[in-house]
Amino acid sequence: MRSIGILGINHKTAPLALREKMARAVTGLKNNRFFPYPTILLSTCNRTEIYYCAEDLAAAHSHLLSFLRSQVEEPFEQALYSFFGVDCFFHLCCVASGLDSAIFAEGEIQRQVRIAYSSSVEGLPACLHFVFQKALKVSKEVRSKQQQQGCFTLYQALWRLACWQNRKILLVGYSQINRGLLSFLMHKGIGHLTLATRRPDQVRLEGVQVTDRSLLSRWEEFDVIVCAAHADDYIIREGGHGSQVIFDLSVPRNVDPHVRAQLYNIEQVNAWIAEHQKNPFLFDAQSLIWEHVVRLSRIYRTKGLPNPHSYLSSGR
Question: 23 near 232, Cβ under 8 Å?
Fold first, then answer.
């Protein structure tokens, strides 16, 4: 595990505005000739992390910092964290298991880790294949135990922060978060659901009105709005009224913070969850992960490298 490292920023170390700048900065990293190292970029609403492999980790770490300084003008070094070798592997397992999420044990992050890995799979060295394949496998075992514990979810938090019954509800973006929220709301018996997405012709949802984003010109007609979409700029601007509730779960943000509705961005949702949630399972889960990391690291050193495509081809 000596040849892998991570440089990251998340909801614990930086405010939302700085996380937005870092998320934009890393988008051009893979095409940058000044950082010629194999990388996997994990960018979510709460974190931006760069996993990389190099013979000289210290040199690669310095090159990465130089690249980020060229993209972000304000000081940010104090908000970054770095891990190397086995510590990097342990961190990735915790992330994939939801232990490092603002919403403890949330399920979206596992899918995001898998997408980050699968979209970068070509040309990766064996060490990055190994840590991502095994981290995803370890996270499944941890999550099975989390489900038995009945951990708090994002959808439960949103449910408590707004009144959903007998309201007109708009979800913006056909993301995994919104797909899960739609299932959650329909299970609760909530109707009057509308989904606005860039490609409505590709979406078929029973009991949900699906339309394109032109509907956003009439967003003030809705009582509760959840934005979890990718956009280069605000897609909801100015206006609104005090009885409306908007959840902006995107980074960069989808909603102009000057709207007159009750607006919760991801940082505010995180703070509410931190205040109301207890994590009795955290210590046991970290201990379980560490046992796996130690065992798998030993296997990596003594039994050779994995098939680079074993995780993707097996569908695990």
Answer: no
pLDDT of residue 118: 94
Exposure letters 80-100 (e unless 16+ CB within 10 A, then b): bebbbbbebbbbbbbbbbbbb
Q: What is the 3-state secondary structure (H, E, C) of 68-137?
A: HHHHCCCCCHHHCEEEECHHHHHHHHHHHCCCCCCCCCCCHHHHHHHHHHHCCCCCCCHHHHHHHHHHHH
pLDDT given for residue 136 in this prediction: 96
Task: Please compute the mean of the pLDDT values over residues 10-29 and round it to a whole number.
Answer: 91
Which one of 3.20.20.70, 3.40.50.720, 3.40.50.1220, 1.10.3720.10 gives the CATH number of domain 154-275? 3.40.50.720
Are 168 and 185 in contact by the 8 Å Cβ rule? The answer is no
Among 10-19, 42-51, 295-304, the least confident range: 295-304
Choosing among 3.10.310.30, 3.40.50.720, 3.30.460.30, 3.40.50.2300, the CATH entry for 4-150+280-314 is 3.30.460.30
pTM above 0.90, yes or no: no
Q: Does residue 289 have a pLDDT over 60? A: yes
Specify the higher pLDDT residue, 123 or 12: 12
**More confident site: 102 or 60:** 60
The strand ranges marked E within the chain are: 4-10, 39-43, 47-53, 81-84, 169-172, 193-196, 208-211, 224-227, 245-248, 262-265
Structure tokens at 136: 């995803």
Which residue in the list 45, 88, 93, 127 is annotated as catalytic? 45
How much is the pLDDT for 32? 65
Q: What is the dihedral of CA 127, 70, 14, 45, to 10 degrees?
A: -60
* 45 classed as catalytic: yes
